[in-house]
Amino acid sequence: MAKVVAVTGNEAVANALRQVNPDVCAVYPITPQTEMMQRFSSFISNGKVKTEIILVESEHSSMSACVGASAAGGRVITATSSQGLALMWEVLYIASGLRLPIIMPVVNRALSAPLSIHGDHSDAMGARDTGWIQLWSENAQEAYDNAIQSFRIGEHMDIRLPAMVCMDGFIISHSIERIEYLEDNEVKDFVGEFKATYPLLDIEHPVSYGPLILPDYYMEFRKAQDEVESKVAGIVLEVAKDFEKLSGRKYGLFETYRLEDAEIGLVILNSAAGTSKDVVDEFRNKGIRAGLLKPRLYRPFPYREIGEALKHLKAVCVLDRADAFGSSFGPLYSDIASSLYHFPERPFLLNKIYGLGGRDYMPFHAEMVLNELVEITRTGHVKMPKEYIGVRE
Amino acid sequence: MEKAMTLKELTKKEVLLSPGHRMCAGCGAPTVVKMVLLASDYPVVAANATGCLEVSTCISEYTAWKIPWIHNAFENAAATLSGVETMYRSLKKQGKIDKDIKFIAFGGDGGTYDIGMQSLSGAMERGHNLLYVCYDNGAYMNTGIQRSSSTPLGADTTTRPVGAVIPGKTESRKNLTRIMAAHNIPYVAQASPSHWLDLMKKVRKALSIEGPKFMNIISSCNRGWRSRTDDSIALSRLAVETCFWPLYEIEDKNVRVTFKPKEKKPLTDFLKSQGRFKNLMLPDNEWLLQKFQADIDREWELLLKESVAAEPKKKD
């Protein structure tokens, strides 16, 4: 039975974590994530969860403690943003390399310098190749739903991988929205009991975690990890199907919005997708066949499925809320371009960088981009392959 | 449960770091680890910072560790073990584990004095029930003898080599044992494998105390010290007898010297057979040697003054 509430994104995810009731949480404060863990800490102080919390002295130590706790044999969470995620970087690879299903909400925020506490996707984009699963969320409801599903996905016995659940800093983390909560027992049953694999605390069966590996086997190990990545999409869909039965809310690898018969389209992550959908509707009302694709499972990136969904369009703009300095294009653009390259007929592709450091993304931005796509379909000419929008000249 | 700490009893126990590991002949670290683990009458889960001990004892797919063991990264052995220990408390509280398990982290001086200092300080302050053991050989030996904050004054290292204008390390060692004591944790000790009974008694005492414990154990490195492989224990003994490495413990803030040499030997007795201190033996560097001896004397006198009950001189 759903319970409808009005809460912030941080509060929604904190509530999901309460309902999952993990064994250990290690966390360090950072804006805009802090509120989430304040709320979770109050669940601990009030006996609402069984979780033991480790209030570490840095994010490097929070991820390090998560690795130890997860290897010990239980369900482990942390949460972070921005500089905190950057500080964890070394240990992120260790968590995925050791195949530890740690769950981490990431409240997306810009990276320094210059210092900014506001939302963009630079933090999670910097961690996109660390071997973690990344689920991205448009709004608080999706963040809540993704957080619950992430446990089933990461802990699946065929993969055992850590997962990040991303949502936009402030725009979602601090805005109050209408949310449907599942009942506590529904979440408990949905995620199930944690199954430990090779726990350190099984002293009768001692195991060694984190060996040195030499050139004779390192590459085989990495190949095995790559093969595991290929199993993730199927598990995400399987879990989504079960979640739909429970909640009535449907999830896939990505969301398509009026895309099937579209000629022009936007590809955009997280909260700005909501704004863009309204503008797509306006264009449809004008008789222009516009559509949108919003990735949900960003890592591992479902290249084949996304390519199939976009290949019939005439022109597509990928909007990145992060730049990848020196690579010419934003990170999402590069992935979309790779997913389309194999098709002999493919849309014109352009890249806009928007919303860095919390800069507003307004409907007129989407309108401007869609008008440019209309122009490209008419002229067959791309003037600017990559451009910053909503920025002073 | 606890067995008497006699050689006869100890020989009946299983050595938990198996032979076949790839530490150098004459290295102090495996001796230290074997002594530490032998002293425990409880099952132990160990964490290991990146370093010689780690890379040489667990090369996939072989492991020398007969106990559960985890290596995470260089600077985070304490944070990692704090996670393991917290999961243990969580599962024990939930009735999913009933055994009494002890937790021990091992790190070299690089991973402890330097890059792992913050992680260690945090774990100690948070009060985790674990023992952190630093095996201190006075430099980054695994990467090839680079200067650490534990490197003694005047020592020759590959990043502060003795040259025409620089006489080796020009700074005194960081006093990590004192820094850990300043955390006001229930137990801090310094030990040496040359005084095995003293070392093992300290480990056993540490494991019997609830809360965070720290032990700093000198660990010879013939590659970095430029000494003979069969001098490992003899040099550790000289370190103690010259008071370069005083044996003491700080329990509930009370300092106690646990071994007082019959006759405090001059520092040069410890330095002279080590190639890393060759430079200190030159007349030009007499000032450096004097400063070094003065550092040692000051700390030893302070320890004696603080020591609640300096034990009568005895051999063990």
What does this molecule look like?
The complex is a heterodimer of chains A (393) and B (316). Chain A is of the alpha/beta class and 393 residues long. Chain A has two domains: 3-247, Rossmann fold; 254-388, Rossmann fold, CATH 3.40.50.920. Chain A contains twelve helices and 16 strands. Chain A has helices spanning 9-20, 34-45, 59-73, 82-97, 122-126, 140-154, 184-191, 218-247, 272-285, 303-310, 331-341, 363-379, and strands spanning 3-8, 24-27, 52-55, 76-77, 103-108, 133-136, 163-168, 176-181, 208-209, 254-257, 264-268, 290-295, 297-299, 315-320, 348-353, 386-388. Chain A is globular. In chain B, helix 2 crosses helix 8 (196-208) and helix 4 (77-93) packs parallel to helix 6 (117-125). Chain B has an eight-stranded mixed sheet with strand order 2-1-3-4-6-5-7-8, with helices on both faces. In chain B, helix 8 (196-208) links the parallel strand 5 and strand 6. The model of chain B has no long low-confidence stretch (mean pLDDT 96). Chain A binds chain B through residues 23-24, 26, 50-52, 54-58, 60-62, 64-74, 76, 90-91, 94, 200-203, 206-214, 217, 221, and chain B through 43, 45, 47, 54-55, 58-61, 63, 65-73, 75-76, 79-91, 93-94, 97, 99, 101, 118-119, 121-123, 125-126. Strand 9 (208-209) of chain A pairs parallel with strand 2 (69-71) of chain B.
Largest interface comes to: A-B, 44 and 46 residues
CATH architecture name of the largest domain in chain A: 3-Layer(aba) Sandwich
| CATH classification, class level of the largest domain in chain A | Alpha Beta
Give the helix proportion of chain B (percent range): 25-40%
Q: Output the CATH homologous superfamily of chain B.
A: Thiamin diphosphate (ThDP)-binding fold, Pyr/PP domains
Helix content of chain A: 40-55%
Oligomer: heterodimer
Number of helices of chain A: 12
Strand order of the biggest β-sheet of chain B = 2-1-3-4-6-5-7-8
Whole-number mean pLDDT of chain A: 97
CATH topology of the largest domain in chain A: Rossmann fold
How far do the termini of chain B sit from each other?
A: 25 Å
How many DSSP E strands of chain A? 16
CATH class of chain B: Alpha Beta
- The number of strands of chain B is 8
Beta-strand fraction estimate of chain B: 5-15%
Predict the CATH topology of chain B: Rossmann fold
Q: Beta fraction of the residues of chain A?
A: 15-25%
Rg measurement of chain B, Å: 19 Å
Strand order of the largest sheet of chain A: 10-12-11-14-15-16
